[in-house]
Design brief:
By secondary structure, the protein is α/β, with parallel strands linked by helices. It has one domain (4-44, 69-203): Rossmann fold. It has helices at residues 9-17, 25-44, 81-90, 136-146, 162-171, 199-204, and strands at residues 4-5, 50-56, 59-65, 71-77, 95-103, 110-116, 124-128, 131-132, 152-160, 176-182, 185-186, 192-193. The longest helix is centred in the first third of the chain and has 20 residues, at 25-44. The termini are far apart.
Length: 208
Amino acid sequence: MAVKVLKNPLLVHLVNSIRPLNVDHLRFRETLKAIGKIALPYMLEEETLKPKEVELWSGKYSFGFLEEKQIVVIAVLRASLPMFEGMMEVLKDAQGGFIAAKRDEKTLQSRIYYKRYTSLKGKTVIIPDPMLATGSTMDLVLEEVLKEEPLKVKTLHCVSAPEGLERISKKYPQVEIYTIAVDQGLNENGFIVPGLGDAGDRAFNTET
């Protein structure tokens, strides 16, 4: 699937509103959470609603519902936690999962050191991650997730670099990639320019 750029004005506004350095960590975190919620309809608009009979004051009727228990939202620790939280607040019966990878800032290579999620076989997996830079971390995450044979895998990013998008879309054509902004590219240290900076540090006030 081709990369889908979400051009919704509100989503673009929210991403741009957290670019400035003077945005405090609470606002940064709350905005990421809102982005996770608002982007969900675009990611799920092609999902099939399943009929379910429910009892109302006026009798029993059949309505369409998402199979939330067949959806697993996986947070890439730690930067994606606010987006993950926003999605889980909307999809109240979805299952949550966690995976952690660390990038070596010298080699720009990543390694997974923690993962915890239910069986993904036959399920729809949603992976929010604010930044898609080199694609090294997401490459490892997708490699692990796809071993479980999920039905669908969708990723959501606030800001992406063309290099990361090309790498992931070419290696994993079956993955649906959603991004709100595509920035200029990467600098010599593998950071997105202009980007957001270190999203994890900015969200949790751990800059040193």
